[in-house]
Amino acid sequence: IYQKRGNIMFKIIWVSTIIIISSFFSISSAFAHGKVTLETDACVRHANGTMVHLSTYQPQYDPDAEYCTEIPQTGDTFWVVDLVDETLRTMPVAIQIIKGSGENSETVTSIYSTNHSDGVIKGEFNLDVGSYTMRITGEGVPPLYYEYPLRIQMINYAESFRKIFPYLILVAFLTWLSSKIVNGKRIRINK
Fold it and tell me: HSE-up of 160 (CA within 13 Å, CB side)?
């Protein structure tokens, strides 16, 4: 009679894998935005050696969450544009939110700010499901242009797959490893 001691090892590896992967997902969602340096932050845009940073919030759904361009729900959304460089703080800044693209685009709202010496411009919008663009123009010489594609209550499947792909590789490797352990570790019990 053969007893597969590897079955116990196989179950332990699978449970460990599930726990590790679920902890990575919860950790990555907690640090999705706001816990990185400006150089690596996906919400920073550069133009001619200057930087701006966008943060969006929906406190009615999650008071602690900070988003960038992937906004999970429709409804009231507060946004903050940080003018990182001093140069931008002394020039007029125009901000437009545009729905759609190309010939089918329409300006939903626009703001013109001339007084932002603290480097912060903030506002609020209430957008329907869909794709939008936030255009920020620093009206200097030369003008500075920044764009943020906003996706309201839409799932970006390509981005989601890109984030989950390393974990899929880990699961495949652990599956292969556990099958080698199960097939290679059989003990014979004599009675």
Answer: 5
Average predicted confidence (pLDDT) for the chain: 81
Residues with Cβ within 8 Å of 157's Cβ and at least 6 positions away in sequence, in order, are: none
pLDDT tens for residues 82-103?
999 888 999 999 999 999 877 8
Say if residues 74 and 129 touch (Cβ distance below 8 Å). Answer: yes
- The CA-based diameter of the chain, rounded to the nearest angstrom, is 90
Read off the amino acid at residue 22.
S
Q: Is the model's pTM score more than 0.85? A: no
Residues 1/189, Cβ–Cβ less than 8 Å: yes
138 backbone dihedrals φ, ψ, rounded to 5°: -85, 115
Report yes or no: 93 and 105 within 8 Å, Cβ to Cβ. Answer: no
Which parts of the chain fold into alpha helices (H)?
A: 6-30, 86-89, 157-184
The answer to whether 67 and 109 are in contact (CB under 8 A) is: no
Q: Rounded to the nearest 5 degrees, what angle is found at the Cα of 25, between the Cα atoms of 21 and 27?
A: 115
Alpha-carbon distance of 37 to 47, in angstroms, equals 18
Name beta bridge partners: 80: 55, 122
Q: In terms of Cα–Cα distance, which of 138, 112, 145 is closest to 45?
A: 145
